[in-house]
Amino acid sequence: MKQYYAAWNRAVISRSSAELRARSLPQCEPCQRDIAAIDDLKRQNQTARGGMITLSGLRASPGVDAGILVQGELVRAPVDLIGASGKVVKSYPEDRTGTIGWILTRSGGVLKIMDIA
Question: Which domain holds residue 56?
Answer without folding.
Answer: 2-116
